[in-house]
Amino acid sequence: MTQAAVTSRSSSALLTLTGILFVALNLRPALTSVSPVLKRIGETLALGSFGQGVLTTLPVLFLGLCAPLAPQLARRIGVDRAVLVATAVLGAVLVLRPYSGTVGLFAGTLIAGGCIGVMGVLLPGVVKRDFPSSASVLTGLYTAVLCLGASAAAGTTEPMRLAFGGDWQAALAIWTIPAWVAVVFWWLQLDGKHIPRRPTKPARSLFRDPLAWQVTLYMGLQSSLSYSVFGWLPTILQDRGMPAVDAGIGLSVSIMIQIGSAIAAPWISSRMRDQRAMIALAVLLTGAGLMGCVYAPIGGIWFWVVILGAGQGGTFSMALTLLAVRARDHETAARLSGMAQGVGYTVAAFGPLGLGLLHGIFHDWQVAGVFLAVIACAVLGFGLAAGRPLYVGEAR
């Protein structure tokens, strides 16, 4: 291969990686930008606890419901074009939903969740296809960028609302900007690229495989805790006496801490016999952080926020790791990813909804904390089962 060809291939790979990272940056801000201003939205649109719970649940539910559409869309127009379309629709929805009234806000939020569901299912396949020898490292990298986007939205939306004179609509709409930046970079990396239009159709379903269900339920239940935190942690902290800006920063700090543990957990577990010890550590830290945020004295809340972030970064990155290590080949991994994210995120939707319902019924967070503890115990159980050194689709 000539030097010019090597240089061209390196430039193309760098552009593709840049596109992947910008798309990853947009996989959470549509969700985490809502919770810091949730109280203001509720006051403006007369949404009670139930309405606010539904608003935080819709995007997670449609993450799961739309995940199975991703392979179908990819077969029709190609994986890369499907990512481009989903990112462009997300950008349009983010600028429209705050200014479309109550119905538009709810409709825009569910569409945003659907777009993210499609993007999230397809992006790991692009990484494995274009960077097969570095897939695990780059998965950790784009997971870290995903956490960075989530943290930025959680920490800056409320300050931006104040900067815009109390306008929560403008503070939400501004998150369309990174989406359109991602569209531009993804479009650039498509130029002149040979794109397979019809991926191989999956051979058979994994829905009768017990290990696949263990991975799926671990993915779904840990996501349920994550989206409960995304949707309700600022409200919980505000109800416990923190100012709105500090509560949003609390969520932001927690997510920022996830960046380190999201990279470290898969790297450390790769040097172990299996993933059970790392999963157990991550889940225990998550549970401790949640209980601290709900029950511990408010003076020590920043310690518990950090513990929560360290745990949740590990639980999420280990869920993505299981999608790869529990499959012998990338076709099986793709099928497992579709099942785990499709069913898992649908299960996850009931976390923030249940939290909102319990708060509405009991008017405090004590019972809701027990609800979170029960979910954490279930995450631990399914995680220990999924972390065994076995492979899906094989007789045992």
CATH architecture: Up-down Bundle
Tell me roughly what share of residues is in helical segments. Answer: over 70%
CATH homologous superfamily - what is it?
MFS general substrate transporter like domains
Order of helices and strands: HHHHHHHHHHHHHHHHH
Beta content comes to: under 5%
Shape: globular
CATH class category:
Mainly Alpha
Instruction: Give the integer mean of the pLDDT values.
Output: 87
Number of strands: 0
Protein structure class: mainly alpha
Uncertain segments are none
CATH topology: Growth Hormone, Chain: A
Total discrete domains: 1
Radius of gyration: 20 Å
Largest sheet: none
Tell me the quaternary state: single chain
Number of helices: 17
Q: What does this entry look like structurally?
A:
The protein has 396 residues and is mainly α. The protein has a single domain, classed as Up-down Bundle (Growth Hormone, Chain: A). Helices cover 79% and strands 0% of the residues. Helix 5 packs across helix 7 (101-130), helix 13 (276-295) runs antiparallel to helix 14 and helix 16 runs antiparallel to helix 17 (366-386). The protein is globular, with a radius of gyration of 20 Å. The N and C termini lie far apart (46 Å). The model has no long low-confidence stretch (mean pLDDT 87). This is MFS transporter.
